[in-house]
Amino acid sequence: MLELLRDSWREAWAAIGADAPRGPLFDELLARYREPHRHYHTLQHLGECIAWLQREQAAAERPGEVALALWFHDAIYDVHAHDNEHRSADWAHRALLTSGVAADAARRVHDLVMATKHDAVPRGMDAELLVDIDLSILGAERERFDEYERQVHAEYSFVPDEVRLPQRGAILQRFLDRPAIYSTPRMHAHLEARARENLQRSISALQ
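== N-methyl-D-aspartate receptor NMDAR2C subunit ==
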């Protein structure tokens, strides 16, 4: 997986017309995704996202920007905080500007990272693809989805069951209640039905 990530990193910067920044940024991001409190928001998740982008990048207007947004979208992950996306987006914005990327591209990457808050319908091809990729786990094969659910519960194991389980059920129900979970045609066709099966099964188990 590390080779896949290294290639993605270099290709993303090249796609936006910049050299991959020298220095510790790549290693800093890897270290973030390896933090011990993470169980789902890890290099496994990042690698799965990058693999999806490689398959679906024809749906992107600016695939390099989508790739960098994926790299940064969970760069900050504090289970006790509510501003992880803001902090991750700000880090991405600073890193791109420092590396000489045009301000409009840096702002677009910032906004893509913010789209992973999943609090609004994504707008634009790149945001739609990015959000679909971030949510691809919902439509994973049953074994991987069940592993994902265990990983998320492990990240929030400090929350008492009587609080955590209903809250988790409510989060999953919000996705299930959407008219469509996936916006891009190919990912919708491939993942929508299985995502709904997974969500309903998990919600039932939590009740």
